[in-house]
């Protein structure tokens, strides 16, 4: 859960992922993705009023985020103020103080964050140095080295600060199985179940948030079927997802949700009320995507855990593990690291201490490299 207050030390005239309090004075807004904890104040009356009287204030995000946001009528008032940017295409943005006319120029680049549909990181380059705001991210080991715009030529850019998704920045979360590993295991479980009969049905017990689409599209492809969801509204303009979901209940894979009961447990009925049309009871298993982590020394154990006669938990993470974050930071070698999230059960001081340790290690490694070269 992001606790980022919205402003970066280097560029306080822009606000990212927070839209209330002092962020009401921002000259430009940036939204990394459509999760509620990154949208505080975005539909607030004060901001709405500010937009009414402003000619220059814009909200920058990816094309997918724009579609997701505008699929909710509560955000419709943003329509004329949203500027969708292409991924990995540096854009010059001028921040204007509407009272004095004073200008500040920045180059902003959206980089893929691998967290949920439309999610991006913002790379900001300007007079105060190059900074990277990760939003929420799940990057695998080595991914940073493949992002061209983090480099100038063959060298990684000099990054002054990283504002970091530190959800799992804690050695307890040393490794989280890769997305591919988790998908492979879920696919196996689904295959085993749905192949038994047409009455064998799988319910994916997903929370009401974007991020599970990766699961839907891959399972849909694999089993040549569509996944039943409550509504298609939000995917209207995303054909690659839309083609994998349906509101038709006659399918063997469901990700629908009970309209009222959050703790719904299926017996022979699904949350959508569906049961077989000829009266034969359905055989349902539920699979709950959950984050599972493993320590540094523990052997990886199963990514699927059976939690009841017909219920399972399957590993699925939207955020990078501790070792993935360490890999990311040691590759970028930023001067400053600012955590945006406090891991569960930790304090701000714990995270800061870990960050400092990380920097000591990095500096030692750097020195070692320099000595070798010298
Ligand atoms: Zn998120």
Description:
The protein is of the alpha/beta class. It has 2 domains: 14-173 and 320-373, 4-Layer Sandwich (Metallo-beta-lactamase, Chain A); 179-315, Rossmann fold (3-Layer(aba) Sandwich). It has 7 helices and 19 strands. A 6-stranded mixed beta sheet has the order 5-6-7-8-11-19. Strands 15-12-16-18-17 form a 5-stranded mixed beta sheet, covered by helices on one side. The structure holds zinc ion (ZN). The site of zinc ion has 4 residues, from loops. It is found in: Nucleus. One of its GO terms (biological process) is double-strand break repair via nonhomologous end joining. It holds the Pfam family DRMBL.
CATH superfamily of the largest domain: Ribonuclease Z/Hydroxyacylglutathione hydrolase-like
Could you tell me which ligands this complex binds, including any ions or cofactors? zinc ion
Q: Helical element count? A: 7
Shape: globular
- Round the mean pLDDT to the nearest integer and report it: 91
Radius of gyration from CA coordinates: 23 Å
CATH class of the largest domain: Alpha Beta
Distance between the termini: 44 Å
Number of domains: 2
Strand arrangement, largest sheet? 5-6-7-8-11-19
Protein name: Protein artemis
Main location: nucleus
Domain DNA repair metallo-beta-lactamase: 239-343
Subcellular location: Nucleus
